[in-house]
User: What shape does this take?
Amino acid sequence: MLPFAMARARLIPALVAHGGAGAAGPASERFERRRAMLAAVRAGAAILRSGGSALDAVVATVTALEDHPLFNAGYGSILNSEGRVEMDASVMESVPAAPESVGPGHILRAGAVAAVSRVRNPVQLARTVMERSPHILLAGAGAERFARTAGIRLCRPDEMITERARKKWQMRRDRMLATAAEAPARAAVGHGTVGAAAADLHGALAAATSTGGVPGKLFGRIGDSALIGAGTFANALGAASATGHGEAIILSSLCREAVTELAHRPAQRAVRGAITELADLTGAEAGIVLVDRRGRIAYAHNAASMEVAQFNPAGGIRHLRPAPILRASRP
Ligand code: ASP
Assistant: This one.
């Protein structure tokens, strides 16, 4: 085994966040979305730079994006078929069992919430489930009762609804009435789910994801963002967060697939392979961001657009709109 100092010297902090895969969204909102993503990553990067944990960094990044009304997570989430907000979120971390263990010997922990309507920051509740309950996933009223007992303030469901989200829901409902019970499209037509993945100076990796779900979703629908392995995953090799058509992400276990591939190929090839496999399997659109245990950042998507903001010591903080690796072949 490497001496402790040498093992630590290889650890490079890194953070990558996404703001959802889907349509590019109105040009008038692009500047503000970019600004918000950079601010969120700046908050996470400050934590990593000062020696804080990957978990703190991804939760701070996702919390900042949940609080921003332009993203489909927390305040500003899209509404379901009944005109209600139901949010999903999850976190996972992989922490070295001993300070010098880089690679195997990590302890895995995860927490998630599904279909919650009365919590301002679902990602923080997901973290609380991980840290203060014996479970991984709590849903609906049970998750909200748990939040209250854990000291997290509950809000009224309508406090989570923005005028922008209500207008979009009304437009969609009018369209749906005109075209009868249309299934939610496989194209990730929404935009604005948020997520982050990070590696810290201590060898820990973490990922977090938060969403209001897909446009047109039924009351009670739970998507990939609440499911460990699908929307969020971390182990000793890396950490990843996904966005896009949730049912397809669940079918292909997107994040776990990409992270476990790190055993065989570099990060960028792992994410490209996972998105290609999802597209082959389902014909749907999705995106993923990933950080490996050496702090290498990777991302890929096959939607019209996915915004990414990232931090690492070599490149600083940057915002990007990576091109799709391929377009989904819609059935
Ligand atoms: N994956 C999310 C869901 O299916 C939506 C998204 O990422 O846009 O709930």
Notes: The chain has nine helices and twelve strands. The pocket of aspartic acid is lined by residues 20, 22, 188, 190, 193, 211, 213-214, 223-225, 243-244, 246, 249 (CB under 6 Å).
